[in-house]
Design goal:
Length: 360
């Protein structure tokens, strides 16, 4: 860039010299006017580019393509991209002035927040008067996760080509990219069924999959959580709520979000997504549990439908990964003693492990 500016400056100096020589030799007012314009032109151009820098605004939106039409979307919640499929981000430069620039460079950072992968691109576009400029940036994400496109800086060149005016802006947009749905994930389905949790044993709010059928007197062996305390106080005898299960069993899936090796982490995330997707099609209720470094606690989500699965993974992709390969499994017995067994999905050195672990 500096070499280009130097050559332009040398070229202008030579033109100034020629014009000045012609004026001194011919004493023509025409060459005097040309000389004045040549002197004022670059100054006005530089002032115009500086004003453009201050007034130009940038917006970044996630986009999708449907029916040969590109549509910009303002929020990442409005769409989910797919791994290895083309994803678009709409970048718009707003120019409210009557000035223009033939060369505006955008320094764009493309990041996968979940995997911690970042790349940088430099894009050159024109800037039109009043309208600015809008274009679609295509991306093919090789890994699932939260993809963020951020315009870190713009550099506006004046029309004479002598100066670039830089502006740090740090404006970005996000989109969630879901994992591939694999059909050949190998695991023992019989062991997985054996590891299903009787859902009516869960006493956590939001996980009560039963309904009250009748109220009867207490029988030794009934659970204390089933006692109807208000009615028992009125009758001076223990009464219990007899429940009937509405969803017999529930599969607990625990993926390890270990980020030491991105290839292994990709295997875990993709396999967990595929296994849960298959279970949903079989009308199986899923309880997804993973260790959250953001909360320093377990994060739990009930998944019954495809939309639940997509939303759960979109939320999970904002988590910070950890280094211990079995961190999620380490505290399951102490934090969730009600779970007898669970489907544990982990990977180390690109070796995937899907197994039912007893919670002891």
């Amino acid at each position: 860039m500096r070499v280009e500016v130097l050559f332009r400056a040398i070229g202008l100096i030579i033109l100034y010299g020629i014009c000045l020589a012609l004026y001194l030799f011919l004493h023509s007012q025409f060459y005097l006017i040309v000389l004045i314009i040549m002197l004022l032109g670059p100054i006005l151009s530089i002032l115009m580019a500086r004003y453009l820098r201050d007034k130009t605004e940038v917006r970044v939106m996630a986009g999708t393509v449907s029916s040969d039409k590109i549509t910009g979307l303002a929020r990442m919640e409005d769409m989910y991209g797919k791994q290895d499929e083309e994803l678009f981000f709409c970048i718009k430069l707003d120019n409210p002035t009557l000035f223009v620039s033939l060369d505006v460079k955008l320094i764009v950072e493309i990041s996968n927040l979940f995997f911690g992968v970042t790349a940088e691109r430099k894009i050159s576009v024109p800037l039109r008067a009043k309208t600015g400029y809008e274009f679609m940036l295509p991306i093919v994400p090789r890994l699932p996760g939260t993809i963020k496109v951020t315009v870190k800086r713009i550099e506006i060149k004046d029309l004479s080509g002598l100066c670039f005016f830089k502006k740090n802006i740090d404006v970005g947009g996000e989109a969630t990219v879901l994992p591939l749905t694999l059909k050949d994930v190998k695991y023992d389905k019989n062991d997985a069924e054996a590891g299903m949790l009787e859902s009516e044993e869960s006493n956590k709010r939001g996980n009560d999959f039963s309904d009250v059928q009748e109220i009867r007197e207490y029988i030794p062996g009934d659970k204390l959580m089933s006692i109807h305390w208000k009615l028992s106080a009125k009758r001076d005898i223990l009464m219990v709520k007899d429940r009937v299960s509405m969803s017999d069993r529930q599969l607990v899936v625990v993926p390890e979000l270990c980020g030491v090796d991105n290839a292994s982490l990709n295997m875990v995330v993709t396999s967990a997504y595929s296994v849960i997707s298959e279970m949903i099609e079989d009308k199986t209720s899923i309880r997804l549990i993973y260790w959250s470094r953001n909360r320093d606690d377990y994060e739990e989500t009930r998944i019954d439908y495809k939309e639940d699965l997509q939303n759960a993974f979109a939320k999970m992709f904002y988590e910070k990964t950890y280094e211990a390969p079995d961190e999620a499994a380490a505290n399951m017995a102490s934090v969730h003693p009600e779970i007898k067994a669970y489907l544990h999905i982990s990977a180390e050195n690109r070796n995937l492990r899907i197994q039912v672990r007893e919670n002891i």
